[in-house]
Amino acid sequence: MLAPALLGLALFFVYPLVASIVYSFTRYNQLQEPEFVGLLNYRFLFTQDPQIGAAVVNTLWFVVVLVPVRIVFALLVAGLLSRAKTATGFWRTLFYLPALVPPVASVVAFVFLFNPGTGPVNQVLRFFGIDGPLWFNDPAWSKPSLVILGVWVMGDIMIIFLAALLDVPRDLYEAASLDGANGAQQVRHITLPTIAPVIGFAVVTGVIAALQYFTEAAVASGVASGKATIGGGTAAQLGYPGTSLLTYTELLYQRGFANFQFGYASAMAVVLFVITAIVLVLTMRRISVFRAEADR
After folding, report:
1. Whole-angstrom Cα distance, residue 66 to residue 210?
2. pLDDT means over runs of 10, the chain (296 residues)
3. Which of these, 91, 71, 73, lies nearest to 82 by C-alpha position?
4. Residue 282's pLDDT is what?
């Protein structure tokens, strides 16, 4: 009975993982036989790749900023919707619908909306006498612009938080009110401990997605720079503007599928796998501490 699931796991997870580890010790371009080079790929990754520093910094920025911002806004919206008295179905649908928009379409729409010259956002700001920034064309504003996009498509997290909030027993709040607990104390000692597993799920999945952040950054770079293709080289400016949107997975894609350095790309993938595992272990431990503190 387990054979189909085990077969799928072996074919689509175990085999690619083992193959990536093996190829990471080789020079391989898919046109010639792999050539064993030992730790050369890892040595180049940690000491010589001129773009790896910017890619790592940008990726960690998305982990540290994008993930908490999305979770906080999703939790706030879910809290408001859980208290709505009228038109609840309409408001829930309204906040959830952006999550159904394909990532590429949402990025293209946002680049248009935030166009510094003709975009509606800067035109509205200009109407109020405010000079809007260059958004996706400014290295200082490109990542915050993607954070705004991430908040707009937070419906997937919001709907999970909403279900968790609606599942909190009402009698707990009533008992706390009778004991003199104010709203902040009820959130601190009732809401957060009850939905802590859901918050942990959102944090873990958010960290994984941020470490693998690719589509939004790659499409935004290509569209904002006026190029139609993704992957770097002469067809698109990698990480435009500057290297502000260059993420680790985007650089991995460029090394593997634009430069055909599959051995080096495999080494990058192995390092990403290890780092993701370490970050998730640390995150799970921190979540456990948070739950223990909340229970107190």
Report:
1. 8
2. 93 93 94 92 94 95 96 95 87 93 94 92 92 93 96 95 91 86 85 88 93 94 77 61 93 92 96 92 79 63
3. 91
4. 87
Label residue 171 exposed, middle or buried (CB < 10 Å: 0-12, 13-18, 19+).
exposed
Structure tokens, 228: 């139609």
Q: 15 exposed, middle or buried (CB, 10 Å; 0-12, 13-18, 19+)?
A: exposed
pTM of the model: 0.90
Residue count of the chain: 296
* 43: number of Cβ within 10 Å: 12
Half-sphere CA count of 105, side-chain side, radius 13 A: 6
Q: CB of 150 within 8 A of CB of 70?
A: yes
Q: E-strand spans in 121-167?
A: none
Helix, strand, or coil (residue 181):
coil
Q: Could you tell me if 294 and 189 are in contact, meaning their C-beta atoms sit under 8 angstroms apart?
A: yes
Q: Which residues contact 247 (CB under 8 A, 6 or more apart)?
A: 55, 58, 59, 62, 213, 214, 217, 218, 239
> Could you give the CA distance from residue 64 to residue 147 in angstroms, rounded to a whole number?
11
